[in-house]
Amino acid sequence: GVENLRGSGMIAGETSRAYDETFTLSFVTGRSVGIGAYLVRLGKRVIQMVDGPMILTGYSALNKLLGKEVYTSQDQLGGPQVMHPNGVSHEIVPNDQEGVHSMLDWLAYTPKDIKSASPIIAASDPVDREIDFVPPKTPYDPRHMLAGTTDEKGNFLTGFFDKGTFKEYLAGWGKSVVVGRAKLGGIPMGVIAVETRLSNRII
């Protein structure tokens, strides 16, 4: 009733304010409906499990409103195939364990409070090493420049950032740009790179 709506509004307001004051991160492990979906969106940073749709209302209710069977599942409304390409979900994970691991990865770049600097961890990758990967004149994957890659002989070619630290976010959204986080000499960095290769999407 009215009390539930008032409580939901209060939670939404606090979540919105929290984003301006502290670190917020949501992990959607199952169906998130109504105010639950609102809160996830208000927190901005979202990790979504493959079978955890975010919806304002169920597909059956929408079908009744439309007067015909338009939707057949919740995933059509707020599944990963909807939320990831639209930039709502930063990352899609297959299970709870991978989701928790992703949260810990994200926290590794987060200051302990608003007045502190991001945590710096001693890097196992020497800061004065050479960068092995050389961008070719033909179109290439910019992730190879950032994280390194393996050549046709099986040799690892180092990239710009510390080995094993680059992690891409929003991979399903904005295909012409690669964004993520990585470490350089143990220092947390935000990453933005341009994808120069042609891409297409068939609807």
Low-confidence stretches: none
Question: What series of H and E elements makes up the topology?
Answer: HEEHEEHHHEHHEEEEE
Q: Which strands sit side by side, in order, in the main sheet?
A: 1-3-5
- Report the biggest beta sheet as strand number plus sense, adding barrel if it closes: 3 strands, parallel
Number of strands: 10
> Which structural class should the secondary elements be placed in?
alpha/beta
**Oligomer, anyone?**
single chain
Helix content: 25-40%
Return the average pLDDT rounded to an integer. 90
- The share of residues in extended strands comes to 15-25%
Radius of gyration: 20 Å
How many helices does DSSP assign? 7
Distance between the termini: 42 Å
> What general form does the structure show?
globular
